Amino acid sequence: MAAQESKTIRTPEVQIDEEEKVGPPPRYKVLIHNDDFTTKVFVIELLVAVFHKSLDAAATLMWQIHHHGQGVAGVYPFEIAETKAKHAMALAQANEFPLKLTVEKE
After folding, report:
1. R_g of the chain, CA atoms, integer Å
2. Spatial separation of the C-alpha atoms in residues 17 and 104, rounded to whole Å
């Protein structure tokens, strides 16, 4: 039998520049837009069910949306923000409301 040679696996040294370090993912706001048809009660129920707001926080945000034309329902990573916005609009459609939600970078 031949003597087995010991092989050493060489791995390159990796240097990470400061610019290459990964930071936290960007966050996105889910905005609810006011309309003249969606009821205030539905908006409050939606904020509680989808965005996990307390009743008081949901009522306060509903009035902000009503008076200012829009309000931030929550801030999340993109996939979560998009999913929550789509879920909320699907619930609005199922209840025959034209509620509009959009997602924009924070």
Report:
1. 24
2. 30
Domains of the chain: 25-105 (3.30.1390.10)
Q: What's the CA angle centered on 78, arms 103 and 86, to 5 degrees?
A: 55
pLDDT > 60? residue 3: no
- Per-residue pLDDT, 6: 62
Segment 77-90, tens digit of pLDDT: 999 999 999 999 99
In this prediction the pTM is: 0.78
Listed residue (62, 70, 64) closest to 30, CA to CA: 70
- Helix H or strand E segment including 104: strand 100-105
